[in-house]
Amino acid sequence: MTKQRLYLFDTTLRDGQQTPGIDFSVEDKIAIARLLDVFGIDYVEGGYPGANPTDTAFFQKKRTESAKFVAFGMTKRAGVSASNDPGLAALVQSKSDAICFVAKSWDYHVRVALGCTNEENLESIKASVETAVASAKEAMVDCEHFFDGFKANPDYALACAKTAFDAGARWVVLCDTNGGTQPSEVREIVGKVIAGGIPGDHLGIHAHDDTGQAVANSLAAVEAGVRQIQGTLNGIGERCGNANLITIIPTLSLKSAFADRFETGISAEDLTGISRLSRAFDELLNRAPEPQAPYVGSSAFATKAGIHASALAKEPATYEHVPPEAVGNRRRVMVSDQGGKANFLAELKRRGIEVPRDD
Ligand SMILES: [Zn+2]
Fold first, then answer.
1. CA-based, 20 to 30 A from 259: which of 24, 156, 279, 356?
2. How far is the CA of 118 from the centre of ligand 1 (A)?
3. CA of 177 to the centre of ligand 1 (A)
4. What is the pLDDT of residues 257-312, one digit of tens each?
5. Distance from the alpha carbon of residue 150 to the mean position of ligand 1, in angstroms
6. Could you give the domains of the chain?
């Protein structure tokens, strides 16, 4: 059976930059873009050219070799033509391969945040996508608040997505901007969008982790048919973070529920570099790595010695859901808490310290 291709889209440099306390310099962005590019990510989103000096400087050159370099920005404003919109001009002039437009897809936000009519918003989506395509860039549209918008007004949310697709967007990305959607809802709504006329191989998912389910929501979307997954390194992002690509990638590559049906641009050999990639990124941020991070954390394959020790030595796979080498991590056997406590009590006794009994 030929496998279907899934595309990985990294937004560490754009949405990840919303993390409190994180502010990338141009040099940081260049280094991170290279790391992602060499690792095998398909799309590297770099920020908002024209919106601030760092991003404008970053987009003066193409910063990736294999990955597509993506500029992010708003659709054109209502009431001005595409050719007279300075924001759109900055996106087109940037040295990007692709433009990801953010568009409102919840009628409530169109009215309150944009202050334009529903039809004007659709027209902005159409004209922006057409401008990107005419300038030989790949176009994609992040449909902001898509799942909440769909619950409130399914026809309008779908009209926004369909307008983007019909205008020539390579990808229409369904965003769970507030991060509160549940996997079952993601599955159901993605199914309705596909039934509504947008093929799954033109759909993406952008999930936030506000209920701790950004990874689950991304995987539910894949099961329902989407073929592009957006996320960040180590799950950084505003509030509770974005979908963690460092967790999603090994799952897609190593779990038969996904690996039997899909392939990504990450080879088995690339995958052995993922623990290093995760730690290198923490080092750049000056953060301590999360020991319990799935797949890559220092505790991910650690087992306490004790009743398991001899079985672990004979047959380590019994205690591991995947081989640690597959993700460049290693097996660790730790002295048990009981051993540690016994040593501590022995030390107290040696020093003549009495431990009062609790009775
Ligand atoms: Zn986001």
1. 279
2. 22
3. 5
4. 999 999 999 999 999 999 999 999 999 999 999 999 999 999 999 887 666 666 66
5. 17
6. 4-266 (3.20.20.70), 289-359 (4.10.430.20)
